[in-house]
UniProtKB/TrEMBL annotation, chain A:
The chain crosses the membrane at residues 6-29, 50-74. It comes from Allosphingosinicella deserti. The gene is atpE. Belongs to the ATPase C chain family. This is ATP synthase subunit c. It holds the Pfam family ATP-synt_C. It is found in: Cell membrane; Membrane. HAMAP family: ATP_synth_c_bact. NCBIfam families: PRK07558.1. It is a multi-pass membrane protein. It comes from the Bacteria.
Automatic annotation (TrEMBL), chain B:
One of its GO terms (molecular function) is proton-transporting ATP synthase activity, rotational mechanism. Keywords: ATP synthesis, Cell membrane, CF(0), Hydrogen ion transport, Ion transport, Membrane, Transmembrane, Transmembrane helix, Transport. Key component of the proton channel; it plays a direct role in the translocation of protons across the membrane. GO terms for cellular component: plasma membrane; proton-transporting ATP synthase complex. It comes from Allosphingosinicella deserti. The chain crosses the membrane at residues 36-54, 92-113, 125-145, 183-206, 226-254. This is ATP synthase subunit a. SUPFAM superfamilies: F1F0 ATP synthase subunit A. It is a multi-pass membrane protein. The keyword Transmembrane helix applies.
Length: 75, 261
């Protein structure tokens, strides 16, 4: 395989990481809703924590996107 | 926009172009770029929004109610995350939140149709990096001024056995030092990724309409266009969430510096 093709394959593989982050983000919101429906009175006070969890899960997926972009345009 | 037919060039929209060449200091050119122009537009929009709502009428108009809604939102966020001592930093976090929000939303304007291509200021690591460094610098200065060297107890978790310290302290130190990078990277990549996605979908729509075979337009362009409407709504949500997350994390880091856990 020549180097140019390997770059595109690598960028495609990095896209898997973005999908994994989708699982994480879905898990954050899903678990929040699950427990918020059990105890709606406590839900509003936990919204800050919800977005912290969302931000942490999302960042790791965005890192995979950065890897793909570096492979495509920088490397 | 796709330069030649069939070729989608999603990175062109992030190019910084010089509008006014300016002058040079010590070999570095100081120019007025489209990035700077859209920053000025963002600040001007924000200024107008605030001016219209700061008349302090007893019975608020709709505009004043909108401004009070945003200020109340940030104030309650600071109160719940930091407590009464956080009031001093509310103006900073408010400006940060509003600037990022307005800059994100201005980048989403569909004025490209009439030839004015909006530039998303926050899609550049340099801009978000400076915002993150300012936040991190304020945290460091406030923490060191309030607590002196006691500030470094931030790296020692409560209740951990003493023999864990050689492992825990470096880990806490790294997680502290990486904060400005994660703060800047999150905003920059979220905006960049969204705009690339929209540009690629727009390329599908245009190329499908221009295709030789007639069946391509309904099969490719129409679904892409419908998907693009959905993605645009999602992007508007992401604009607001990213601005909120940036402000929220800044307030949490300030809480660390002020109250030291």
């Amino acid at each position: 395989m020549d180097a140019e093709a390997a770059k595109y394959v690598g960028a495609g593989l990095a896209a898997i990481g973005v999908g994994m982050a989708a699982l994480g983000v879905g898990n954050v919101f899903g678990s929040f809703l699950e427990s918020a429906l059990r105890n709606p009175a406590a839900a509003d006070s936990q919204q800050g924590r919800l977005f912290i969890g969302f931000a942490a899960a999302e960042l790791l997926g965005l890192l995979a996107f950065v890897v793909a972009m570096i492979l495509l345009f920088v490397a | 926009m796709a330069a030649e037919a069939g070729k989608i060039d999603p990175m062109h929209q992030f190019e910084v172009q010089s509008i006014f060449d300016g002058f040079s200091i010590g070999g570095h050119q100081i120019a007025f770029t489209n990035s700077a122009l859209w920053m000025v537009v963002a600040v001007a929009t924000l200024w107008l929004f605030m001016l219209g709502g700061m008349k302090r009428q007893l019975v608020p108009t709709r505009w004043q109610a909108a401004v009070e809604g945003v200020t109340g939102f940030i104030t309650s966020m600071m109160d719940s995350n930091i407590g009464p001592q956080g009031r001093k930093f509310t103006p900073y976090v408010f400006s940060l939140f509003m600037f990022i929000l307005v800059a994100n939303l201005l980048g989403m304007l569909p004025t490209g149709i009439v030839g004015i291509h909006p530039f998303t200021v926050t899609s550049h690591l340099t801009v978000t990096g400076v915002l993150a460094i300012v936040s991190f610098g304020i945290v460091l200065i406030v923490g060191l001024l309030r607590h002196g060297f006691h500030f470094f107890s931030l790296f020692v978790p409560h209740g951990a056995p003493w023999w864990m310290m050689p492992i825990l302290v470096p880990v806490e130190l790294v997680s502290f030092m990486v904060r400005p990078f994660s703060l800047a990277l999150r905003l920059f990549v979220a905006m960049t990724a969204g705009h690339i996605l929209m540009k690629v979908l727009a390329g599908f729509v245009i190329n499908g309409l221009n295709a030789e075979a007639l069946w391509v337009a309904p099969v490719v362009s129409l679904p892409s266009f419908i998907l693009m409407i959905g993605i645009t709504l999602l992007e508007l949500l992401v604009c607001a969430i990213q601005a909120y997350v940036f402000a929220l994390l800044t307030s949490l880091y300030l809480n660390d510096a002020i109250n030291l856990h």
